[in-house]
Design a protein that fits this description.
With about 100 residues, the protein is α+β, with helices and mostly antiparallel strands. It has one domain. It is built from 1 helix and 7 strands; from the N terminus they run βββββαββ. It has a 5-stranded mixed sheet with strand order 4-1-7-6-5, with no helix packed on it. It has a two-stranded antiparallel ribbon with strand order 2-3. A hairpin with a 6-residue loop joins β2 and β3. It is globular and about 40 Å long.
């Protein structure tokens, strides 16, 4: 599967944790999804375990900047939660999902 601007090799779940309470809100697209920038394809499945091939590891920073531009937010307004990454098996590629 080719990596393009509309088909990046990873996805994001975006949330806002209120700084003075335990309130947690998830950003949803107009279509009601919580996976950005594009939805996962049909038949996607969460993997319980996944060994990362070192040659194919992708750093999320460039894609996070691209997502900020798409959502029209400043880069300092979104950060990646350290240690939170899930792997999803999709037709043709295994996709990391960052929080």
């Amino acid at each position: 599967m080719e990596t393009t601007a509309t088909n990046p090799p990873l996805r994001f779940v975006i949330h806002h944790l209120h700084p003075t309470s335990a309130r947690l809100r998830f950003l949803k697209s107009p279509a009601g999804r919580v996976i950005f920038p594009t939805p996962l394809p049909a038949l996607s499945e969460l993997l319980e375990e996944y060994d990362i091939p070192s040659a194919t590891a992708t750093h999320p920073a460039p894609f996070l900047r691209q997502l900020c531009a798409t959502l029209q937010v400043e880069p300092h307004e979104l950060t990646i939660v350290n240690g939170f990454r899930l792997w999803v098996d999709t037709p043709g590629v295994t996709v990391p999902v960052y929080w």
